[in-house]
Structures are given as structure tokens and as C-alpha cells.
Amino acid sequence: MLEAATAPKTARQIGLPFFYGWLLVGVSFVTMAIGVNARTAFSLLFPQILDEFGWDRGVTAGAFSFGFLVSAVVTPCVAWLTDRRGPRLVIETGVFLMGTGLVLATLIRQPWQLYLTLGALVGGGVNLLAYTGQSLYLTNWFVRRRGLALSIAFSGVGIGSITILPWLQSLIAHSGSRTACWSLGLLLVGILAPINLLLRRAPADLGLEPDGISDNGTAFGTRSLTNIPLASDDWTLGRAKAVKPGLAPSAAAMCHARTLLTVRRTSF
User: I need a surface site. Which of 13, 38, 102, 121 has the fewest CB within 10 A?
Assistant: First the structure.
């Protein structure tokens, strides 16, 4: 009874037709698409801020650089906090900081307020929910397909740049930078806050294994080569020598294949 209760679950047992890790890749894709581009949207807001306040270009652009400085300070804290509290709290905190920064940016009257909102809050918040935060937990969910999973997740930045930024530019042109900040902040919080509640630190939190590997060593939805009857035989060198001469090359190949299958099965 105890073994049955603690046995790893399959994707179907938790109500999904696919491995839960791929759902998290989708969440990461959307988070990167909106979060990273909300940060780089400063370049679209920059001309409007100059026109409205007439501040020095260097002082205004310095808010964006200040955000990188804050990001450098925040990065070690991201890893420390993720190790202790998990990715959900970290990324949701990033969503809150970025959303707050964008909404408060509509109230800017002085340069220091620009540095606080679009600089510190947005620049620091994005580091909690973007590359650093995503890499710390997604790598727990994949081993064999780790590169593919991260590539798909991070490709959201490119998709977001060709969808969100043109929309934001049109909004700035027709309604101004303050409306654009309001809209972007609401979009970010309204979408990212709910979907990131799905995050889990590792497959073990749901009774799963990395890549959806089941008890028999196969990934969910794939066919195991180790289930082939011949692979279950003990193809030693002595047994290969005992077969008929005409079958010796095939037996030798089977002996080699058996070794590779054993190594591959135990390596993961």
C-alpha cells in the first residue's frame, strides 16, 4: 500500500495527456514573451518622455541603465530565494514588481520617479521572472530534452517582440505613453500572475520524474527499445561465440547493442 501511494505518477494520472513539464514550458514561453518585452519597451516610451518633460537625454536614458545595475544586484538573490522558496514565489514577485512599476510610471513627474518605476521596479522585477528565474526550475524538469525545452521557452522573447511591441507602439502613438504603461502593466499582471501559479520546483513535487520517465525507464508517449525481447537476453561474448558461424556477426552486434542499451538506461 505504501509503495503504491508513493509511486511516481504518469501524465495521465494527473489529468494531462502529456508531460506536465511541457505545460511549464508553455507558461515560461508566455512569461518571457510579455515580461522581457515589457522591459525593452522603454525604448518606445523614451521619445514620448523626452517630449513631455524636456529632460536631458542622458538623464532620461540613465533610468534604463540604472535598471541593469539593479538587476545585477538582484540576480544572486533570485537564485538564493528560488532554492529556499521555489520558483512560484520568485516569479510572482517579479510580476508584482514589474506591474507596479509600469502602473506607477503613469504618475511620473520627476526624474527620480522614472528611475524608481521604469528603472528599479521594472528592471529589477524582470530579472526575477525572466532568464535567471526560468532557468533555475525548468532544468529540473528535463534531462534528455533540456536544450529543446529551454529553447522553446526562451523563444517567447522573439514572438513577443513582433506582437506586443507593435501593439504598444500603436497605443503610444494614439493615446500616449501613460495609457501605454497602464495597458502594459495590466496585461502583464492579468496574464502572468494566474498562469505562474501552475509552477512547481521539480517533478517530484507532483510525483513525476524528469522528462516524464516512468518506472520502466521510458519517456511518456515514447516506445522503449529495452522492451524488445532480444534486448532482455544476456548477450555475453561467450554466448556470441557459441552461435553458428553465419550468425556470429549478428550476435556480436547484438552483444554490442545490449551494452549500449544498458549504459543508456542507467545513464538517465
Answer: 13
pTM: 0.74
In this structure, what C-alpha cell is assigned to residue 125? 522585477
- SS3 per-residue string spanning 178-202: HHHHHHHHHHHHHHHHHHHHHCCCC
Look at residue 255 and give its three-state secondary structure.
helix
Contact of 21 with 153, CB cutoff 8 Å: no
Please give the grid coordinates belonging to residue 233. Answer: 537476453
Cβ density class 73-96: b for 16+ within 10 Å, e for less = ebbeebeebbeeebbbebbbbbbb
Using one digit for the tens of pLDDT, what is the confidence trace for 100-145?
999 999 999 999 999 999 999 999 999 999 999 999 999 999 999 9
- CA-based nearest residue to 208, from 117, 143, 154, 160: 143
Q: How far is CA 258 from CA 56, 228, 247, in A?
A: 71, 11, 16
CA dihedral 6, 10, 15, 21 (to 10 degrees): 110
**Is residue 258 predicted with pLDDT exceeding 50?**
no
C-alpha cell at 126: 524582470
Where do we find the cell 508553455?
A: 26
- Domain 2-212, classified CATH 1.20.1250.20, yes or no: yes
More confident residue, 16 or 73: 73
Domain boundaries, the chain: 2-212, 225-267
Residue positions counted in the chain: 268
- Among 194, 192, 199, smallest CA distance to 38 is for 192
For residue 16, give the DSSP letter.
-
Predicted pLDDT of residue 15: 66
For residues 183 and 167, what is the distance between their CA atoms, to the nearest angstrom? 11
Residue 236 has pLDDT above 80, yes or no: no
DSSP state at residue 91: H
